[in-house]
Amino acid sequence: MALEQYRAKRNFKDSPEPAGDAKLAAARARAAKGAKPRFFCVQKHLASHLHYDLRLEHNGVLLSWAVPKGPALDPATKRLAMMVEDHPIEYGTFEGVIPSGYGAGIVMLWDRGTWTPQVDDVDAALKKGDLKFTLDGYKLKGSWVLVRTKGNWSGGGDRSWLLIKHRDDWAGNVDITDFAPLSVKSNGDFADILAEGSPDIWISQRPAQGGEAGALFQKIIARALEMKGGSKGLLGSKGAKGNRSRAAKGSMKGSKGSVRAKRAAPKRTRRTS
Q1: How confident is the chain (273 residues) per 10-residue block, as mean pLDDT?
Q2: If DSSP codes are grouped into helix, strand and coil, which group holds residue 100?
Q3: Is-contact 46 253, C-beta < 8 A?
């Protein structure tokens, strides 16, 4: 597996994302043979829309799936997962702001840990479209499966998979994305991450201008500006003043739910069954 597609989509002079180290990738590929635990992460990405990126280390890269609604702990809930380009191993610790271009937005390291294949041959399982594995992260644990769909989801073709939790001690009806919304790296929310950089970077042009993602960006930018001590009135769009006052209360509405700025340190998910 190579990273040509990943690199072709990005301008690393503008983007803080890692380009990838070929020597590191080769070394990790040699070390991770068989059913040994390997690195995994889930990155919460607010770009043109809010989604979660599941990344599994394999052969020196991170296999990646975009999960629009995020992982679900309920085995009855099947979440669409669109396979995207492989990412470099170094991306697994990335958290920050992509100011422009492909994927422009805010990336949060939402979960990380190790994954272990439940199959002898990962490549064969991927080809078959049925990859069973276990996760040992801060938030996601236990047995899971990625199953490629036979249908064509919005033109996705072979890229369309389903992420499903198996029934075990770590399954349950808790909405883990709402229960544990913060970063496992910084313990912050999107506004905290943006305030660490340049919250005024999207004053004139946000990655998402309309819809739920656009409204969420508006609140996050306003709150980050206040945290940073920036001047008011810079958002320059209708309703900005109201958005600033609401954002100051620390609430952020996410896609079909609420993402509240909870300040508790990330804890390992308790058994929910």
Answers
A1: 67 68 65 74 96 95 96 98 93 93 93 96 95 98 95 63 98 97 97 93 88 94 89 47 37 38 43 42
A2: coil
A3: no
The residue among 44, 49, 53 whose CA lies nearest residue 81 is: 53
Token pair in block for residue 251: 């609430």
Place of tokens 């609430």: 251
Closest CA to 46 of 263, 267, 259, 264: 259
Beta bridge mates, 92:
none
**Which bin fits 157, alpha (ψ -120 to 50), beta or left (φ > 0)?**
left
Structure tokens at 258: 């609420």
- Bridging pattern class, strands 96-98 and 257-260: unpaired
Q: Letter for the amino acid at 181? A: P
Q: What are the Cα distances from residue 75, in Å, to 117, 161, 181? A: 19, 15, 20
Q: How far is CA 177 from CA 89, 140, 226, in A?
A: 24, 10, 26
- Name the residue among 262, 211, 259, 251 with its Cα closest to residue 70: 259
